[in-house]
Amino acid sequence: MKEPLIYEISSPGRIGVNLPECDVEQTPLPEEFLREDLPLPEVSEVDLVRHYVRLSQLNHGVDKGFYPLGSCTMKYNPKVNEDVAKLPGFVHTHPYQAPCAVQGSLFLMYHLQEFLQEITGFSGVSLQPAAGAHGELAGVLMIRAYHESRGDHKRTRMLIPDSAHGTNPASTTMAGYETVKIVSDDRGNVNLDGLRAHCDDTVAGLMLTNPNTLGLFEEYVQDIAGMIHECGGLLYGDGANLNAIMGIAKPAELGFDVMHFNLHKTFSTPHGGGGPGAGPVGANEILAPFLPGPIVVMERLDESCEAGEDWEEEAYCYDLQMPASSIGRLKAFYGNFGVCVKAYTYIRMLGAAGLRQASEDAVLNANYLLSRLKGIYPLPYDRTCMHEFVLSGPLPGTMDVHTIDIAKRLMDFGFHPPTVYFPLIVPEALMIEPTETESKETLDAFADALIQIAEEARGNPELLHTAPHVTPVSRLDEVQAARKPVLQCLKG
Amino acid sequence: MSYIPNTDTDRAEMLKAIGVESVEELFDDVPEALGYPDLHLPPPVSETEVLRELREISEYNVDLEHAPCFLGAGAYRHFVPSVVGHIIGRSEFYTAYTPYQPEISQGTLQSIFEYQSMICALTGMDAANASHYDGATALAEAVVMAVSVTRGKRRKIVMSAGVHPEYRAVVRTYTQGAQLTVIGDTTSATDISSLAEMTDADTACVIVQNPSFLGYLEEPDALRALADAVHTAGALLVVSADPISLGLFAPPGDYEADIVCGEGQALGGGLNFGGPYLGYFACRKKYLHKMAGRIVGQTVDRHGERGFVLTLSAREQHIRREKATSNICSNEALMALAAAVYLTAMGKTGLRQVAELCYHKAHYAARQLSTLPGYELLSEQPFFKEFPLKCPRPVEEINDYLLDEWGIIGGYDLGRDYPELANTMLVCVTEMNTKEEADLLVEALGSMEEEA
Fold it and tell me: Would you say the ipTM is above 0.95?
């Protein structure tokens, strides 16, 4: 099953593409500026295609099988999304073309902003952040800019529950704030007494994920919001788990001031093996002026913008604008537009009822899967879950079987393992998110596999320790990789 | 909805197994008064309808397949071989998540390892990461990294005005909470030696872009002298570079850069109205542990066979939380794959050929344009594929005329960012521009002056 490195199939003189001849008179090259050698591979087109096709076959993806990776919402990626994102009018537009020449792109961005506002209840959305963590950085910088704008310089602490994604404290540090950890209570909620003890005039805000990373809806979310607002702080929403509550509750109405979206989770855009994603950020009327920009605005048509002549909404055109007190640009240009096209398409196809259905079935599927596994795997927080739930790895009656072994053994059944060892507050965590796009048959097959693995853990633990058995490579030595880093195949 | 397999029968069985009467019961924790808001979204449409709608929206754009284009300024129209789309269009690649489970992610992992190797080859650096969001955020992360390498004690960033204006803005956004001072980019005329003069014991890094935003190539000797001065002061030299230019010109490793990063969109990525793009990032080995982002490393499996894993994750947010080198989690992996496929297709000779075509065609266009009355090149400095052209009237006026009367997309208005460069157009010519297109631009500008 080994595929050689592309450099190992390289042979001097081969070329992978035919380029045109130069059609103009040549200009002498400035010799002292030139490089001597360029160590890139030399392969023919057919070598190239076979190499990458064979590599692709070593991957597991949503299109190949179940991918219940908790917190990542690995739902099916509709194929029509891929097709529309490749329309020449979208692919071949330059970000610096005059607004009048890119009204289609601006129309789409404007209406996606509006859709996301409507789904969450926020009054402004910027599509600029390129990923969830990028949106978090935007949100924390916005909170910071808000406090600074009021001359309130003593707020330097961001409160973060111990169940939070690692990106929350990391984003907080990047924004120049100190992180304060808030413990969870025995029902998996933010501990209100613990929170209250930290609420004072040095608090910039609280970063809350709701449903949280245990897959549980914060039972006292409104009290939490009240407490934070009372001490002058603001409430940041990590929108990674929005897939549970579309059409069920609007985050802005729950008390959140600012939140990022993960279009690559909730809104079905594929994750690309790590990216690109898109992490738009939404804010209420207090924080909207601080949004990163530019954002797209709709303007009454005037002489400077002629594109509206035969436009559906005749009296309007679209333009780019920096919000009044913007934290500034977070990346070049306007965001991951190609990803936005896919999310727009998804929302247009589902509509309000479809989005609510998606959330309801995501939660139904998770609770059904939980009902099949409860009693077999320890469940630290026994509550109705939202779109995901967290089991604990140490199986009663087993010795020396860890979550990593269970995860690796799942691969032998053709499943991608759940998220493991996160959240940190659950020992040996297995975080399972089935999503709404999986059938009952798939959920049953997955449950059956986990039940069988639990039996194997007692009867034949070696089978787990040596797993996986049917994958392109067996268990890999991650310690060696870190101890003696080999990060490229060239000399040096 | 075809994306949801559950039937009402399935739902009834599942509710029964859970032990509840209705789906609503599962949402009992949601505050009752706030539950089930009406979402005012347009009524849903079928696949046929959505295809029509999106095609219509896309057609309100003037697309570059139908208009000769001389616009660059950080986003470039280069040839994308067909193989790129076919490979990144394989859903084994695009429907995978970050390769947390290496045994079933070797495709992604090995392709990133190869990408890292090719980025090292291009830049002359020792190690590369798996990508950043774009060239601007890669540069901002380079600044954060340089501050960290100098143990957070140095608070000054010296940045050339030749760095892309939006990258400079992003560096400032990223560092607004960090009490850093960014200097050096107040005038467009910043030269390399003046950057060295600004560097002192409080400087974490010096940033140059090569070719500069204005398209000019910096002298390798001057860059080497700058690197010496920067290193003597104990700071890092960060270079932002167009990767296509590195097919032809000296890699920043040759002139002793410490971090090399930039926009990789030109490597097999479309223009896509500004994103998704690709931030590439590479550094010297000694700074490896301060680098942000995912890194793939080679290792062995239980049977001693070669395999690849995400490594050095003790730098990252999911392990180190508030002490991580960065908050980055998702990156632009699929665009990195596109870049790897592109660089493989181009190979050792092809990338140089692309760069040479850009160089010759841009110089041809520059010669022709500078013969027009009222037009002249801003300077005689050597350039790669872009050059500033002084114009007899506002660039916006010229571009409106070019688009309306000739269907040509003109260059970038440098007056937007550099007040002293009003009426100066940054003209970009790549291998995609034919001689006829360049001649047409000359003809169009000529007739504009005749009509005026």
Answer: yes
CA–CA distance from B336 to each of A24, A255, A478, B124, B431 (Å)?
32, 39, 23, 18, 22
Query: Do A210 and A329 sit in the same domain of this protein?
Result: yes
Can you tell me the distance from the alpha carbon of B148 to that of B294, in angstroms, rounded to the nearest whole number?
Answer: 18
Are A42 and A14 in contact by the 8 Å Cβ rule? The answer is: yes
- Residue B81: list chain A partners with CB under 8 A: 16-17
Kindly tell me the number of DSSP H helices and DSSP E strands found in chain A: 14, 12
CB atoms B3 and A332 under 8 Å: no
- Partner B contacted by A368 (CB < 8 A): yes
Domain count, chain B: 1
Check CB contact under 8 Å for B5 and A30.
no
Tell me, yes or no, whether B452 lies in a domain: no
Query: In terms of residue numbers, what domain contains B203?
Result: 82-342
Task: Tell me, yes or no, whether B77 lies in a domain.
Answer: no
**Rounded to whole angstroms, how far apart are CA atoms A208 and A227?**
13
Assess if residue B44 is contained within a domain. Answer: no
Q: Tens-digit pLDDT profile for chain A (492 aa)?
A: 589 999 999 999 999 999 999 999 999 999 999 999 999 999 999 999 999 999 999 999 999 999 999 999 999 999 999 999 999 999 999 999 999 999 999 999 999 999 999 999 999 999 999 999 999 999 999 999 999 999 999 999 999 999 999 999 999 999 999 999 999 999 999 999 999 999 999 999 999 999 999 999 999 999 999 999 999 999 999 999 999 999 999 999 999 999 999 999 999 999 999 999 999 999 999 999 999 999 999 987 765 555 444 545 457 899 999 999 999 999 999 999 999 999 999 999 999 999 999 999 999 999 999 999 999 999 999 999 999 999 998 898 898 999 999 999 999 999 999 999 999 999 999 999 999 999 999 999 999 999 999 999 999 999 999 999 999 999 999 999 999 999 999 965
Residues A33 and A140 in one domain: no
CATH number at residue B227: 3.40.640.10
